[in-house]
Design goal:
about 325 residues; mainly beta; Beta-galactosidase, Chain A, domain 5; 2 domains; eight-stranded antiparallel beta sheet; seven-stranded antiparallel beta sheet; 17 strands; about 35% strand; globular
Length: about 325
């Protein structure tokens, strides 16, 4: 089966009053039972609106005709973007599953064909929720066995060599606004991803379970924070990463080149991604994106190993002082279930 662009969950339509239809997400892979992302239709539509999707994009996600999107919005009472409830200063940062359809990259699209929505979530900027980061968590998982997970089509994986297609999945919504997902691979390896939003950060944890009879080693994970929807400055495409700072375990991006001066003396705004144990902090200018890629410790049979990280927003000039402050916080060791 060939998966369409940003496949994610598929949908079926249920007819409402007046002949209008609304879609509910359902997995379609025959390899697993359907997974229903069971949220009210109005909430689903408002999440698309919050992502700034066009009418055409919303129609593709909902799998309804374009001319039914606006009547559906009115019938459900979904707010237009400018009337959506704003986040209060002490609320957790807003995160949502990324809906798919719209490619989260600007460039290097040949390196991410048919990206899977299942691994992606959005983190909305506290200073302007029209802008958001799309985090691929994970983008890829490598091991001594080879590439055992890839969130798009690009290079060969263990499974594409065998002609095995991994079933599509969806994020499970937990209390506190958490997102959770478990991926069971065909060779008895599994990994779980947890995401928890807090007022000043978004915590992330990836735990790998080794159900095989052999030691797993070389466990490198790629975590990609894509900046296309963060707006001008953040999403500048250049060949020099002029707006980025790499200070492992952190990768940070600014809304303007780091060495530039702003004639209006606006405060700099930053997005920072960090993971431990860190293997590499870097950025891919054409995408553009940040990476803080962890190296999970070797995992004996029957055991599990984890990597933990976070994403932060910051306004100010001295980002290195901010990174030192982050070092004094508990993001590496915070525990939540």
């Amino acid at each position: 089966m060939t998966t369409p662009l940003l496949s994610g969950p598929r949908v079926f339509a249920i007819v409402m009053g007046g002949g209008l239809m609304v879609a509910v997400a359902v997995g379609t892979s025959p390899a697993q039972p359907p997974q229903i992302d069971d949220i009210p239709p109005r909430q689903r539509l408002e999440e698309l609106i919050r992502h700034g999707f066009t009418t055409e994009e919303m129609a593709r996600v909902l799998q309804i005709p374009v001319d039914q999107v606006e009547p559906l919005r009115k019938q459900l009472g979904a707010w237009p973007f400018h009337e959506l409830p704003a986040r209060h200063a002490n609320d957790p940062l807003r995160i949502l599953p990324y809906p798919g359809v719209r490619h989260p990259r600007i460039g290097f699209l040949e390196g991410a064909v048919n990206p899977r929505a299942e691994s992606k979530f959005s983190v909305f900027a506290p200073w302007d929720e029209r802008h958001y980061v799309v985090v691929d968590f994970p983008e890829a998982v490598f091991s001594n066995l080879g590439l055992i997970y890839l969130a798009h089509t690009h290079v060969e994986t263990v499974w594409t060599r065998r002609g095995v297609e991994l079933p599509e999945q969806t994020w499970i919504r937990r209390p506190h606004g958490d997102l959770f997902q478990r991926r069971d691979l065909p060779n008895r390896i599994a990994f779980e991803t947890w995401v928890r939003p807090q007022r000043d950060r978004v915590l992330m944890r990836l735990t790998l379970h080794n159900g095989t009879d052999a030691l797993l080693s070389g466990l490198r994970v790629q975590i990609c924070a894509m900046l296309k929807m963060m707006g001008p400055g953040f999403n500048a495409v250049d060949n020099a990463n002029a707006n980025k700072l790499f200070a492992p375990p952190y990768a940070a991006v600014c809304d303007r080149p780091i060495d530039s001066q702003d004639p209006d003396n606006r405060p700099r705004r930053w997005v920072t991604l960090g993971f431990e144990p860190i293997q590499r902090a870097w950025g891919n200018p054409p995408v553009p994106c940040l990476h803080a890629d962890p190296q999970i410790p070797d995992c004996p049979p029957g055991q599990h190993r984890s990597a933990q990280g976070a994403l932060w927003f910051f306004e100010g000039e001295d980002v290195r002082a901010e990174l030192r402050r982050l070092d004094q916080t508990d993001w590496r060791t915070a525990v939540w279930e």
